[in-house]
Task: structure prediction
Amino acid sequence: MREPGSGRKKAAAKFVVCSFFGIFMFFVRIDIGGMKSIPVDHLIAWMKSWLKDSYLYLILAASVCSIVLRLIKREFRNAADILLFLTTVCGSLVCLAVLLGIGGEAVREAGSFAVDATGNILCAIFAASLFIPFLTEYGLVEAAGMLFRPFMRKVFLTPGSSAVIGVSAFLGNYSMGHILARQRYEEGSFTEKESVIIALGFSTCSVGLMINLADYLDLMQYWSAYVACILLITFGVTAIVSRIPPISRKKETYRKGTPPRLEKEIRISPGEIWRTGVETAAEAPGFFRALVNILLRTAPVVCGIAGTSMAVITFGMLAAAKTDLYRWIGWLVRPVLMLAGGGMEETAAVSSAIGAGLLEPVLTGILCGGQEISLRLRWAAGIVPYTAIVFFAGFIPSVCSSRIPCTVWEMVILWAERTVLSAVLAVLSGWALFG
Result:
């Protein structure tokens, strides 16, 4: 016969053990084979070495699967869905061009580079997704959300309950934040303005991308400080842009025809935070069930990213080689980056790479990787694409597909605002950390 309270003790143990294991996997650096990094990064490195020769075939297969799934489900509700489908098709055609050795030399060369970059991205996303449930499923997100709840209305102009969505979107991926923000808007829990702040203020890329950027820019040795700065800068910039156009001009009204569901004030205490974490852990699935669930959610995402990344990275590399597009966009942050103290040439290279982040954040790391760039500039290049949040290859189509009330033009303006503010804070944090 089960003793009274044994279920609660089991839930408390699950909350503590799973949360600490998740923290260990993503934030504690260990030495394996002379390489000191977080455990997830060691797993990613092993996957890369094991799968590298098969990247092209895996990416092509994943892209074709994505195309077939979209055709079967008929996911063509709006222009964003159609654009994503066409981008995936283009990515598949690039794979075929590389595989068969057809097409122009420039396209094949850029495509070959895109194969390596896309394969690395997919390895990072897949490996990170295996352990994300330990951060998101067993009470850590809810406990952290409860901890931040008293500050949400004052700092970010959103309801206290949005803290859970903000934390889970930051730790998970942007699509999660978009879906949850739209859901709360439709049910009357968020106003139009509040849903936009959550969807475009906390819904960052996956942790896998963060690891990718750090790897490309040789920042893994500063991983804990890197994550902390990204967290603080993301939230700090969100607090600022929530008070200026275009977000400040969003309506503070609830969805038409939906009765508002105003949240009740609750008293926050250490005991309440602990209880929230334990209760969430009690309702959470077992590890293997959580693993199956995350794999089922991750597989379509990985398939979709495979084709779009191939197309976007190929186009991005061609644009970098054949045009001055990124150089002109990069002028937005070049004056700020000059404060990092690097030379004119490397400052220009980093500002152009950050400009490429509007298309795809990982392009910043790709364009900077392997170059002789000072640590403070690499630091800024690793932070700004992540904290700027908005980009065309995935994020903007996801916002459009989720029907978040924000136009593409408004998102481009928001990217510019976040990029400049992030660059300022990234440069300041670089000076503070590295002198």
